[in-house]
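Thread: quick sanity check before group meeting

JM: Hey all, I'm pulling together slides for Thursday and realized we never actually wrote out the predicted structure for the chain we discussed last week. Dropping the sequence here so it's in one place. If anyone has concerns about the input, flag it before I start.
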Amino acid sequence: MIRNVIGSILALAGATAAVWSPFRDWYDGRHGRDYRVQDLFLGITGSGGPLLTSVLLPLAFGALIALLGVLLRSRLLVALSGLVVLGFTVLWMVRQGQAAGSLTVGGDGAGLGTGVALAAGGGVLLLVAAVVMSGRRRRDELDEHPPQEEDWGPYGSDPGGPVPYRDSPYRLGPHDDGHGPEGPPTRPGPGQRDER
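JM (edit): ok, ran it. Output follows.
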């Protein structure tokens, strides 16, 4: 339970970083929202495009998968979201390196910016969250390790379940109730005396 909570917090932080990253500088002061999705596959160009067709689209898709993974407590979905975010970030870095000749990191706003660091960090956080989460327990695991039953002493573990004295070793046949031919032992009623 605790692992799921910590993993969910890490996954949400990673998804937030991934979605926020296109609004920060990615390279030479150019924001991530200025890079089109098709630039990732065809090569980086200087022209921008609408926000919904920018790098934000695949990163928001990865964040949506992470959100579904947190809601369903699915480690697989959270890990997939981390791979999507990291994959598109690395693909952008490859394309940007091809367009610029090399990638540089500068402190004066030149080179790689904080947006790339946020996207890469968000992807790593999502992968860490998938490792930390315990996920949902499967049905076969529950069958292998059933929950401990409460001990009811000589009456068995469940008042409605089988108890030791219901099955008698002295049973004679399928219709015998285990008390012998005279039936169950009885005590004399309050108004009767045992005259022997």
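AS: nice. The beta strands are 25-27, 30-31. Residues 2-137 form one domain.
JM: adding both to the slides.
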